[in-house]
Each structure stands twice: as C-alpha cells, then as structure tokens.
Design brief:
Number of strands: 6
Largest sheet: 6 strands, mixed
Shape: globular
Bound molecules: inosinic acid
Radius of gyration: 17 Å
CATH topology: Maf protein
Number of helices: 6
Number of domains: 1
CATH class: Alpha Beta
Strand content: 15-25%
CATH architecture: Alpha-Beta Complex
Distance between the termini: 12 Å
Order of helices and strands: EHEHEHHEEEHH
Helix content: 25-40%
Structural class: alpha/beta
Length: 186
C-alpha cells in the first residue's frame, strides 16, 4: 500500500517512514501547498486542508499540523505557531514570558488522514518554556521547550530521543496503530 504524506519537511517524512514502513506501507512525500484557514483548533485547520486536498490528490494521503501552546499566554501561539515563529521568533516568546512564573506549555500535533473520509490522530507532549535558548538541534521552538521529566530542551536531544517523546511521534504512533488494525481487517 502506498500513502502520500503532504509535507515539504524531509525530517517529518523520515519520521513518518519510521512508523509506517514496518507496516508494509510505502510513504511518498509530496510538497503541495494547501490553504491553512484561520481557526481555533489544529484539528479544524488540518481537516480543512485534507478536504481541500482530497479534490486534488489521488489515493490515500495525510498531513500534519502542530503548534506550541503556552498556558500563561492562554494557549498562544497555538494555531499561529508557524507565523509567530517567523515574526516574533524565539526571542519574542522569551520576551513575552519575562517575569512569568508559570512556564507550563505543550506541543500538540494533529495528523489528518484521508481515505475517502477524514481520520484525525493527535499527540501531545507537556513541558515548560526555559528561561533562555539552549541547544542547536531540532527546529522551531525546540531550543526553549523542556519536556516534562527532563532537564534538557528538545534542541539538546538527538532526533531519536526527541521523536520518542514528541507530540508528532505520538500522533504518528496513534495513526500507525490504527492503520495496523485496519490493514489486518481490510
Ligand atoms: P507545522 O505543523 O510544521 O506547520 O508547525 C507549526 C509551527 O509550530 C512550526 O513552525 C514551529 O514553529 C512549531 N513547531 C511544531 N512542531 C515543533 C517541534 O517539534 N519543535 C519545535 N517547534 C515546533
């Protein structure tokens, strides 16, 4: 079975393959820009993208949408994470968090799969926003996110270590478990 992953990020593609290839699924990456609507939840953004793409892509496919939610900022940047990363950046977030004691935050990832209908899988990792940037690995907000139970940021971890506990890893895991069951039945 071949499934298309709508992404332009080779790291995400490698990660998806690690979960899906063992099921006998061939994952094919495809860069195909799609509209990201302004909505309150990642689920809505992802589901809209999938519906839109379903009229333009043949065969089963999936995409993923993720964001960083900071408790003290009422979930900001959340669905706006990509835009905020490009504009305010890490320094902007650290500035917003100056003097803020409650540093709790979580990353959430939504994987939306299309096989004639939409199926949504989510993964979350809780942690806290560090006081300064640390580490050079990963991408995005990794240098300021310290997952629960760890003293290091995501950017101070190896890719494998981060993927094992990350929001996206968990969403891919839920997706691959569901697919495994489905392939057994179908
Ligand atoms: P997207 O789902 O790739 O569009 O991610 C949206 C934005 O959330 C990215 O631009 C990053 O700023 C942030 N983000 C999502 N996942 C991660 C992650 O694993 N580490 C760091 N930042 C992330």
């Amino acid at each position: 079975m071949r499934i298309t992953f709508i992404t332009s990020n080779p790291g995400k593609l490698r990660e998806a393959m690690a979960y899906l290839t063992p099921l006998g699924v061939e994952v094919q990456g495809l860069k195909f820009p799609y509209p990201e609507i302004q909505a309150d939840t990642l689920e809505e953004v992802a589901a809209y993208g999938v519906e839109w793409l379903s009229e333009r892509i043949d065969g089963p496919f999936f995409l993923d949408d993720s964001g960083l939610f900071i408790e003290a900022l009422q979930g900001f940047p959340g669905v706006y994470s990509a835009y905020v990363f490009k504009t305010l950046g890490i320094d902007g977030i650290l500035k917003l968090m100056e003097g803020v004691e409650d540093r709790r935050a979580y990353f959430k990832s939504v994987v939306a799969y299309w096989d004639g209908e939409v199926h949504i899988f989510t993964g979350t990792v809780h942690g806290r926003i560090g006081l300064e940037r640390r580490g050079s690995g990963g991408f995005g907000f990794d240098p300021i996110f310290i997952p629960e139970g760890y003293g290091r940021t995501f950017a101070e971890m190896t890719t494998e270590e981060k993927n094992r506990i990350s929001h996206r890893g968990r969403a891919f895991e839920a997706f691959s478990n569901w697919l495994r069951d489905k392939l057994k039945i179908g």
